[in-house]
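Anyone able to model this chain together with adenosine-5'-triphosphate?
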Amino acid sequence: MEQIIRIAVQKSGRLSDDSLSLIKECGIKFYNGTGKLKSTSTNFPIEFLFLRDDDIPGYVADGVADLGIVGENELVEKDKEVLTLKKLGFSKCRLSLAIPKGQAYPGVSYFEGKNIATSYPKILSDYLKKVNVSASIHEISGSVEIAPSIGLAEGICDIVSSGSTLMMNGLKEVEEIFKSEAVLIANTKLEAWKQEIIDKLLFRINAVQKGKSNKYVLLNAPNESLEKIVSLIPGMRSPTILPLAQAGWSSVHSVLQEDQFWENIEELRAAGAEGILVVPIEKMII
Ligand code: ATP
Ligand code: MG
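re: yes, here you go
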């Protein structure tokens, strides 16, 4: 039998586009036509299962899939035994408690003895235990924001990204209880040959992620300020310095984290750097 691993990704929703882009940036080709629930890569030993995100932790725990991409919120809520291999940096959101806008909020004791509607009963009950509040949790699977206005609950616990859905439903966010982003998870009992394929995949994911957070920087500088400039943009091993056609000037090429670049930009300019170009890096292997 051909040796191939299986990864479960969300079929459609707030995880799926970025999950599939990441796979594509890793150079892994596959076809995902609408409605197709399974697909095999044409150039990497991996098969895709397109599922609802709720089912991904369970399928990975059971070994139906070897890997999965899922939000930490869903992962912690489902409480299945899997390994988290990597945070992926997309589908960032938070789980928060919210109450009707007009209500005064004295602190988390507000919820004592109240009803809270949520799709995340486990995360919510863990939180309530931690802060020593007893409330009843009313589990509903969607449109949680409507609960207070129809008298179902005095507060809700749900995913917030911008807060606009809360506002539209007359609610205000009062406590953030959990932060989430997409993660790559794996079954806990993988055979060695599967682990080898996964290591190759992880190597590519790391290269893509490093590339994204780093930039290739090119600038011109008078030779007398090279020492200062090199110290500001040290790069991977050390910057490349090339002479310009104009005597007394050099071109400096380096790689650095984007935030580090912004921190140093004033000093670079003060040191005489000019003609600064910042170029995206597609992949980076150190
Ligand atoms: P499914 O049909 O697969 O069950 P769903 O409706 O449960 O999908 P989505 O709304 O597609 O879920 O969200 C999937 C995941 O994306 C969430 O569990 C969460 O981790 C993350 N997420 C949710 N809302 C946002 C948001 N507004 N911004 C970024 N990430 C989000
Ligand atoms: Mg879901």
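Residues 214-280 form a domain with the Alpha-Beta Plaits fold (CATH 3.30.70.120).
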